[in-house]
Amino acid sequence: MGFPIMLFVVAVAFLCTLTSTMAYSSTVPSTFYLGGMFPLFRKPDGKNFSSIKSGVERAASLIAAVNAVNADSSILPHTTIKYVLKNNHKDAGYSVEAGVELLKGESSIGAVIGPATSTNTKITARVLNPMSIPQISYSATSPSLSDSNLYKYFLRTPPHDLFQANVIIDFLEQEVAGRGIFSFSLLVGPGSYAESIGKLIQQTYNYGGTSSKKMQLDKAKYFRGDNSDLSKQLDELFADDKRGCHVYVLSAQASDMQRVLSIAKEKQMIGDDKRAQWIMVEAAKASYASFRGDMSMQQLNEIIKGSIVVSPPDGAGTSQHNTFKSTLRSLGSLGAPCEPNHDNNYCFGLNSDQCSDAVDANNNSIWYHTLPTDTTDYIPRKICLGMDMSNYEPTLYMPYTWDAVWAIARGLHQLLEKKQLQNTSTLCATKVDRQKLYEELIDHVSFTGATGKYRRTIS
User: Fold this and answer.
1) For the whole model, what pTM was predicted?
2) Digit-coded pLDDT (tens) for 79-106
3) What is the pLDDT of residues 20-63, one digit of tens each?
4) Alpha helices for 26-80 (secondary structure H)
């Protein structure tokens, strides 16, 4: 049964902070600098440095999109987009640092894509807002980011979290109730992402009171703690439900979802036997690419099989999505992944067999990085974020990154090529009303991207 799909649109404006030296004429700049913030690698407490696969995937998607835009003479025939990428480590402090580095770098950044999470996006918006720099996220889905008073220049390509909550509610009311099942339980993990979805579902069904809905919310649990505590909570949740089929709605981040699914499998409350029907948020889909640990891909497939996963549209199978996929694959190999630890000290040589030597507009290496000195032995180490894109199957938020770049390109096209501005030096002046420019571009950017049809919205 197909889910109702809400197509969200991204419109984008840009801040002209470009050089006044024009290659084409006095009206069109020769270069536009695009900033990107991605969690590429980090060092979790008590562990070694490791790459963040989802961040590397999305950075590659940005690069593929920029290559495609620059190769398309109908979009920006007189302007080249160049990118400057920063690793924000999936950390609030590093996100602020990355935002400041983009602003003070040698290249004048006109727009920023990223970062990945809603929390870090909110923080970096405070850095970018004073400079009126448009910020487009490829995966920050918190509804609170729609507050244009706080996040004045924020846009996003994916729908926000309430999309998933509303789709789940519609599915419960139309499909589940239509099959004669009129109750469900709700399990919610920690964090704003999981809680925003869970709370909307709980409020909709007025847990503990009355509701005009067909379905009834039996139990709602918000889990925390370690696996032992989680196991006890699941025992309480499952206590009265082993007599027959029961519906469970699970809202959690991928890592927390893995814990729930593993324990539920042990308790024989998930899988093919239909004793329980699970409805999960898109983190279940993301988990296929991001889980690391004892669970193999095959084991994860066996657990999730038979469950229903709500996911934003990714455009798979469309001509635009196929173009994105083929351009991504044209990047080829980024090198062999290399994550140093205390038992080895490799990752030093830089060659085509080990790690790509690609650099950004500031001549900084993209995939090959020198790590902070380890104070336990003071041996310098490096990391290679190698991946082979030659036959890569994109994961959920990669095409949203592609569309973010194309939204910026379309905005630039409207401003630089279609409107034929007469005086770019006036546009770039510090006193220009960039808010009006931003609103003008919002009104005109519309295109069909890798994830679907885009029309004007800022939320």
Assistant:
1) 0.83
2) 899 999 999 998 999 999 999 999 987 7
3) 333 334 455 688 889 999 999 988 777 778 889 999 999 999 99
4) 53-71
Q: Is 304 in contact with 262 (CB distance < 8 Å)?
A: no
Q: How far apart are CA 35 and CA 39, in angstroms?
A: 14
Q: Report the 10 Å Cβ neighbour count for 298.
A: 8
Query: How far apart, in Å, do the first and last CA atoms of the chain sit?
Result: 28
Contact, 291 vs 369, CB < 8 A? no
d(CA 144, CA 140): 10
Distance CA 456, CA 444 (A): 8
CB 116 within 8 A of CB 193: no
Query: Which domains are seen in the chain, by residue range?
Result: 31-159+317-454 (3.40.50.2300), 161-309 (3.40.50.2300)
Can you say whether residue 347 is alpha, beta or left, with left for phi > 0 and alpha for psi between -120 and 50 degrees? left
Per-residue burial over 345-359, b = 16 or more CB atoms within 10 Å of its CB, e = otherwise: eebeeeeeebbbeee
Instruction: Give the integer Cα–Cα distance in Å for 368 and 318.
Output: 34
Task: Tell me what percent of the residues of the chain surpass a pLDDT of 70.
Answer: 76
Residue 202 in tokens: 């709980």
* Residue 392 neighbours by CB under 8 Å, 6+ apart: 325, 328, 329
Those residues with Cβ within 8 angstroms of residue 419's Cβ, 6 or more apart along the chain or in another chain:
none
Cis peptide before 158 (omega within 30 of 0): no
State how far the alpha carbon of 311 is from the alpha carbons of 175, 320, 373, 402, in Å. Answer: 17, 19, 41, 18
DSSP string, 246-266: EEEEEE--HHHHHHHHHHHHH
Indicate the DSSP class of residue 18.
-
Query: Which of 140, 119, 82, 209 is CA-nearest to residue 400?
Result: 140
Rounded distance, CA 355 to CA 91, Å?
25
Residue 104 class from Cβ within 10 Å (0-12 exposed, 13-18 middle, 19+ buried)?
A: exposed
State how far the Cα of 46 lies from the Cα of 53, in Å rounded to an integer: 20
Structure tokens at 214: 């067909």
User: Is the distance from CB of 41 to CB of 88 less than 8 angstroms?
Assistant: no
Cis peptide before 380 (omega within 30 of 0): no
Cα–Cα distance, 163 to 82 (Å, whole number): 33
